[in-house]
Design a protein that fits this description.
By secondary structure, the chain is mainly alpha-helical. It has one domain (4-137). The protein is built from six helices and no strands. It has helices at 4-23, 25-37, 42-61, 67-87, 98-115, 122-137. It is globular and about 40 Å long. It starts with a helix and ends in a 6-residue tail after the last helix. The model has no long low-confidence stretch (mean pLDDT 82).
């Protein structure tokens, strides 16, 4: 159960990240165009945009220290981006499976770790190893 402070941080992070998306629609439009053209790997593109939006949110809220809150924020951002991509016709609803969503999260985590290595603990490093293995098994190449 999140404390009131953690809930507030979650609320602000979601509002800030999705607000920055609406303020900078060019980034999302570029994503949609790349997905529609088939030139972009949707998992990679959605994970990269999620990282960008989370970083913008943390500039406003400060680092999200609670891992459960962070995971909930990331999952909410991913869900919203996927929903918007489906609505825009860039991703087929049938493509969105639990594995697809998990792959986006796993790729996001690999990007986040590279961007924020100072925020990892031993448990995070172990989980990262498992996620990187999952990413490799799915045939997703990191850029």
């Amino acid at each position: 159960m999140a404390t009131p402070q953690e809930q507030q941080q979650y609320d602000v992070a979601i509002k800030t990240s999705l607000g920055s998306l609406s303020q900078n629609g060019d980034v999302f439009n570029s994503l949609i165009e790349a997905l529609e053209s088939g030139k972009a790997n949707p998992i990679q593109q959605l994970a990269q945009l999620t990282l960008s939006l989370l970083d913008k949110a943390e500039q406003q809220t400060g680092p999200i220290e609670n891992e459960d809150v962070m995971e909930n924020v990331v999952e909410s951002i991913i869900e919203k981006l996927v929903e918007l991509a489906i609505d825009a016709g860039a991703i087929d609803q049938q493509q969105v499976t639990p594995d697809f969503m998990a792959d986006i999260f796993a790729y996001f985590m690999s990007l986040w770790v590279k961007a924020h290595p100072d925020r990892l603990d031993d448990e995070d490093r172990a989980m990262l190893g498992q996620m990187e293995q999952q990413v490799r098994q799915q045939g997703i190449r990191q850029g």
